[in-house]
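Dear colleagues,

I hope this message finds you well. In preparation for our joint manuscript, I am sending the Resolvase domain protein (Mycoavidus cysteinexigens) sequence together with its predicted structure, so that both groups work from identical material. I would be grateful if you could confirm receipt.
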Amino acid sequence: MKAYVGVDISKGTLDVQMGEVFFQVINQEQGWREFIKALKKFISAGNDLGAVVCEASGGYEKEWVMRLQKAGYPVHVAHANKVRAFARCKGYLAKTDKIDAKLIQTYAATMQVEADEPILSAEQIQLGDWLKRREQLGKDRQREINHLEHCTDALIKRSLKAHIHWLDKAIANIEQAIEQYKGTPDMRSTHALLTSVPGVGDLTAWHLIAFLPELGRSNHKSLAALVGVAPFNHDSGKHKGKRFIQGGRALARRTLYMSALACTRWNPDLKAFYQRLRAAGKPAKVALIAVLRKLISMLNSILQRQSPWMENLT
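The corresponding structure tokens are as follows:
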């Protein structure tokens, strides 16, 4: 029987439930070494390790997870909503770090979770950090512009303008770094294949490489669900509700949405597909999301067969 280790992660500590033993270490290099030492003893005692399981904790788990994966230990980062739903199902109301560590362990053992495959390289992680920073700066800039539009105080106006100017320079620096980014040979090859599709630009391609690494490795329906554009049923008895989309990776979805919008004008295949849907009476937004799903399938197929886009002339 597989044994699972539950870890509740915070900024300062790792609360660990390892078998029947609970202990706490600091969330720093020294604590990580102590955890790995305890984990080695746990395995040498005859326990068949299924995975070390934690929740996504706003990035506090990031370096620790990479350290464990690099050392060759199976790790699974559970979705916090799934763990919380499991707690409600079991009727757990109390919440402490110790209880959460035990809860994560019980969740992992009950659901028989599998270790995550580390599919992001160090270069992809770096690229993703740059792209996230670009989006953060862009949001800050738009917020300051909105504030400036309604500001009447001269001092605050000068402050806002100075901040916007600084943000413009910071965004330009990030975009220059992304524009000059080379990455690994595999990343450059993938980028070239993705940008062969009319409507898919450099930034879109880099976003997909950083935030949708499953592209080219999964089936079309799974990718649509990962992005958050898979249609879900809403039926009960005789009631047939409207299909809806929900969840998914927001950054990848926003980028693909803008790309799909461009494709309805500049990609001959997807433009024709969009016009057929509109002619059939589909609302513009519904037709656009259908184009987005078709674009995902197209990109996935291109990466799977490792050949660039070619116009469908039939």
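For the figure legend, we might mention the following. The beta strands are 2-9, 13-18, 21-26, 48-55, 75-78, 235-236, 239-240. The mean pLDDT is 92.

With kind regards,
E.M.
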